[in-house]
Amino acid sequence: MGAYVHLCLSFLAVISNYNVQAFDIPDLRYLKAYISDDPDGPYHEFLDYSPDLRDQGLDNSIKRVCLTGIWFLYSDYNYSEESTELWGPVRVNGCLDFELTLSTSSLRYAGSPYHLDDSYYNLYEGINYCGREFRGNTNADSLLEFDLRVSSVIICGQSPWTFFTGLQFTGEAVCLYPANIATGNNISLHWNGLPTMELLGLPDNSIRSVAKGCLTDNVYPNNHLQVELGDAVELGDAVELRDAVKLGDAVELEDAVELENAVKLGDAVEIGDAVEH
Questions:
Q1: 25 domain-assigned
Q2: Residue 100: CA count within 13 A, CB half-sphere
């Protein structure tokens, strides 16, 4: 079901090699944040949102990450519109080293809190996956406080989702397919995301209801072909890049990119509000 996400603090712990250890579940979502590029160095393991990395002693200190899932790392607290940079790595049991220590003050994941490839959607009040979010895994005939306030979207799992500009599944509709696949260790994550509604073909702040499945002939991407990229995929256009990418005017996620480093959203983008669950 849909959920209006409220602020709360994540786990509090000092950095160690064994804090908040992941359970022995093959498709568990996690992010390990290191303060150096040493793979054997100390790290903090996140299984949930963290609106303020000062609580873990990691504010502006992350140099390396190992992760499974879609994770967003923001340069300001609470995923705020004041953020000037956003990193959005997508991995299945993969790692990233950064040339410079990240200016990261909050982080959160996208997708189901239950299983990695469950069918799920995240709707964000800000563009570029920032701000407060409405999320769920079932039909929502109304978005409650988020009515006419959605500016970006992520879907996960193998099901498409249909987004409507009217209440109770009426009005203009677009079907979004999970056209990208991240894989690793025989585990797959299907996903797709758009940092603005215009890229989905809808006006900003126009979504009013959501239904599981493809309930319209208006489909995005129009070929809805799945792209398999192996262990490492990032949020961006279909291009292989070696360095961090700064995303500007027209960013589409209909295809996935294999990147050596995380996608970085800098001065050329605007970042929305934030709140956490």
A1: no
A2: 7
